[in-house]
Amino acid sequence: MADLSILNGNLIYILFTHDGEIDEPHGVEILSATVQLADSKPHTVLYDFNKKNILLRNIAKQFAAVRNEHESHIYGRAFLTYTLQNEIEAKHFINYNKPLCETRIFKEKQLAMDWLNEMILKEK
Predict the structure, then answer these.
(1) Greater confidence, 124 or 46?
(2) Strand duo 20-21 + 54-55: pairing
(3) Environment class of residue 67 by beta-carbon count within 10 Å: exposed (0-12), middle (13-18) or buried (19+)?
(4) How many Å apart are CA 55 and CA 39, to the nearest integer?
(5) Is 84 exposed, middle or buried (0-12, 13-18, 19+ CB in 10 A)?
(6) Which residues lie across from 106 on neighbouring strands?
(7) Distance of alpha carbon 10 from alpha carbon 47, whole angstroms
(8) What confidence score (pLDDT) does residue 104 get?
(9) Beta partners for 76?
(10) Is the pLDDT of residue 72 over 80?
(11) What strands, in cross-sheet order, belong to the sheet with 74-80?
(12) Does the CA dihedral 115-117-123-124 come out positive or negative?
């Protein structure tokens, strides 16, 4: 459903690889992998919808309920959207969950990465 990697040493990149709704087991799996990659260090997260039809309703609740942003050292979160559906899902995540860290929506990967790198530099 998603591939996770670290870019630039502190940016966790989540690339969605298949269409579908991310249910609770997938949400927990992605969350666990993110926490493991972060290793309690300052980081940012980039969700790349990769032109896939992803429904985030369940995962949004998982991230909001399980991951304490004050203790997780997450300094910024960006959603990379390509379709109207992706943008609606990202907006729903932001408006419904009211993330504690800055969270923005982008249509260009490099702009998202630049902004996330600024978030890390601002916190150092």
Answers:
(1) 46
(2) parallel
(3) middle
(4) 27
(5) exposed
(6) 80
(7) 14
(8) 95
(9) 44
(10) no
(11) 2-7, 11-16, 43-48, 74-80, 103-106
(12) negative
| CA 44 to centroid of chain Cα atoms | 8
Q: Which residue from 63, 60, 74 is spatially nearest to 31, judged by alpha carbons?
A: 63
- pTM equals 0.84
Residue 123's nearest CA partner among 101, 106, 105 is: 101
Backbone angles phi, psi at 50, to 5 degrees: 55, 40
| Residue 13 C-beta-side C-alpha neighbours within 13 Å | 13
For 30, the token pair is 């992605």
H or E segment and range at residue 96: helix 84-97
Residue 39 DSSP label: T
Task: State which amino acid sits at residue 92.
Answer: H
Angle among Cα 118, 26, 19 to the nearest 5 degrees reads 85
